[in-house]
């Protein structure tokens, strides 16, 4: 590895150093319970102060450290993945601007500076999704940016409602906002914004569509940072959320999202879409656990999920890159023979996703499920949580079967090998963090251990559900030939569950079909009809006839004017 | 005493003007009538100035009248050069 003066290596070094700095400072702040507000007064006029505030507490510093770490690994990885791309500088600069927007969002206690990061995230994720310039990427980018834009509108309305409190520093007003109508409005609008950004149930169709982006983008943006921005906003607003009753709504929405995407991932055959739906499922888990008030658990799961999901996307990227950009899992099989190191990382991240004991995901996920069992939940949410955990294991083991264990399905003349050294090195750092990250964070973040006391069957429930789900997933996906397939007999349910409860169709065709149809009617009756009659062609013919009429009376013999002049002169002389 | 013959001069000028505004085909006829008006005016100014013994002023008048005739002929020539003839029908007020 020769360290040339490449934009990838320079940004990797910078981001890595910053991430280490932030992580160390975050742990320091967490243990000593320090919160730092750094303010810069821009303009001050009588009673109006324009102040730029930075909030540095353990949550923002730790989150920044993780984001910078993952982005440094992703940039290092993309040196190899995007090799041969002529516009790699633009790509790296877009990723760096994305990280900058995320920084703005994380360290701000102020709605306006969050908006700076929020809008920046939406814009740059659009630019990254349309990076490959074909029609599918364009339509995916349009779906992404317009869904995010709905949340931006709600955010701006929330800023307008926030004027009632005198400043936009929401951090200081959360306990006062519960009692007012304005606070309820702000809670509702912020929940709406977080629901669009984190792809909850009505707005979840953009996340699988945004997989048209390059894989490093998916690994950074759609697994760890962009979609967790909504969760982070809800963590910051959590006191208001729970106190105003929006938490009940968000619990159900998050639960439904978990359930829907878990079911959908079992029917998908595109590798990146399966991983996107698993991200969606974990996001639903984060949203529902923080709507119950457990913000440290949600934050914990956010961080560990970021680690293993970014790793999972990186492994998927290696596979896709070597298979000649084929993303269909029906063409993959026995890849463990060709990619030994990548398979290690793949398996580790998949098991961490399932909650395999003592990997990264276990600490956060198991603790979440135990806290759910201890709190007063309704049956529906309980079912959502545990059934979705089983479904997670189900699609994970289905994916492992298709990618690793089944018989070989690709071309026989291939050049698949595991020798992208930069990609491997990036993945190794991530797998190191994925293995030890969970236990590290559980020692650091959860300062006071919570008392968990429950009967044995409930304690074992998470493990039982996971193991059963895994078994079912593996066995159901072994391919047999049959003429009477169950999913074909119940084709409505299969298509309903497999296409995310038909919501993508509603988000795309449902929104454009009537405006497009009425637009064609307007075109034919207004633009090409009455507007032409009253406007362009009609006025043209009126003016033409008037001008012809006028010209008739102006095409005279010159002498007539002289005659009139003479008559006038004659009268002057006679009646002088 | 020749002032009593004003009527004759008025009639001369009037007839010249009449011929000027009449609808004719050629520009040259208009110029001719213009020259006729100049000539009759010359006649009239002669008899006015003769009464006050200041006939030299008539020379000024004559010079200007001759220049005006020359100018009119120049216009005629340029019109023939551009339009090919000097008919009045070949140009109108709208210049289009």
TrEMBL record, chain A:
Residues 395-575 form the NADH dehydrogenase subunit 5 C-terminal domain. InterPro entries: NADH_DH_su5_C, ND/Mrp_TM, NU5C-like, Proton_antipo_N. Pfam families: NADH5_C, Proton_antipo_M, Proton_antipo_N. GO terms for cellular component: mitochondrial inner membrane. It catalyses: a ubiquinone + NADH + 5 H(+)(in) = a ubiquinol + NAD(+) + 4 H(+)(out). The chain crosses the membrane at residues 12-38, 58-79, 91-108, 114-132, 153-172, 274-295, 301-323, 335-359, 379-401, 422-444, 456-474, 486-506, 557-575. The keyword Kinase does not apply. Coiled coil: none annotated. GO terms for biological process: ATP synthesis coupled electron transport; electron transport coupled proton transport. One of its GO terms (molecular function) is NADH dehydrogenase (ubiquinone) activity. It is a multi-pass membrane protein. It is found in: Mitochondrion inner membrane. Keywords: Electron transport, Membrane, Mitochondrion, Mitochondrion inner membrane, NAD, Respiratory chain, Translocase, Transmembrane, Transmembrane helix, Transport, Ubiquinone. Its EC number is 7.1.1.2. It comes from the Eukaryota. PANTHER family: NADH-UBIQUINONE OXIDOREDUCTASE CHAIN 5. Belongs to the complex I subunit 5 family. This is NADH-ubiquinone oxidoreductase chain 5. It comes from Ladona fulva (Scarce chaser dragonfly). The lineage of its organism: Eukaryota, Metazoa, Ecdysozoa, Arthropoda, Hexapoda.
UniProtKB/TrEMBL annotation, chain B:
The gene is ND4L. Gene3D superfamilies: 1.10.287.3510. Pfam families: Oxidored_q2. Core subunit of the mitochondrial membrane respiratory chain NADH dehydrogenase (Complex I) which catalyzes electron transfer from NADH through the respiratory chain, using ubiquinone as an electron acceptor. It catalyses: a ubiquinone + NADH + 5 H(+)(in) = a ubiquinol + NAD(+) + 4 H(+)(out). It is found in: Mitochondrion inner membrane; Mitochondrion membrane. GO terms for cellular component: mitochondrial inner membrane; NADH dehydrogenase complex. This is NADH-ubiquinone oxidoreductase chain 4L. The keyword NAD applies.
